[in-house]
Amino acid sequence: MPFSLWLSLAAICAMGAMSPGPSLALVLKHTLGGGRLPGITAALFHAAGVGFYALLTVWGLGALVTRSPDVFQLITWAGAAYLAWLGIKALRAGRAGVMSQQGVVTTRRQAAKEGMLVALGNPKLIIFFVALLSQFVTPDMSSMAKMIVVLTAMLIDGGWYVLVAVGLSHSRVLPWLQRHAHWINRLTGVLLIALALRVVMGPITIG
């Protein structure tokens, strides 16, 4: 793969990773609930989910999914339901917050599970990879070039959210987040439910 083409691929992956959405809310939630390690765990497993969709794209299965309306609709509704469920959980946390001493803190296992499921249940990722990443895949593409596409998507996504988790868990940042945990829970819950409703209302465009 020419370096100039790879730079274009990396730029698109970076824009996709950095756009606000449920992934950012998820990393924030687990960093707030357990500190740096659960936040990084959520970031890495989210990247694994991204890698799965990238792999589907280079195999040509992503386009197949979009040509099967029933399958795509099922994925869309399942993703919306999961985002709504996460949003309701965040709203119900209330003032108890995930960081209260008597509260139940998040664990690395929970962070890993939700990191993967948020990635796999986000219809925006399907559209992102099929509409944009598939443009970098050609029928005569070598296995090495396909691997570069998958690894680029994974490393940029994981790297960005690891940086987010590390930044949020800084000694000066985390105490502020802890003091405002109930407001952050509410904001995260509203964001996740709004995204779920947006998914249900119609196709998501990448902007």
UniProtKB/TrEMBL annotation:
Pfam families: LysE. Keywords: Cell membrane, Membrane, Transmembrane, Transmembrane helix. The chain crosses the membrane at residues 41-65, 117-138, 144-166, 187-206. It is a multi-pass membrane protein. The keyword Hydrolase does not apply. It comes from the Bacteria. It is found in: Cell membrane. The keyword Transmembrane helix applies. PANTHER family: AMINO ACID EFFLUX PERMEASE RHTB FAMILY, ARGININE EXPORTER PROTEIN ARGO. This is LysE family translocator. It comes from Halomonas citrativorans. The lineage of its organism: Bacteria, Pseudomonadati, Pseudomonadota, Gammaproteobacteria, Oceanospirillales.
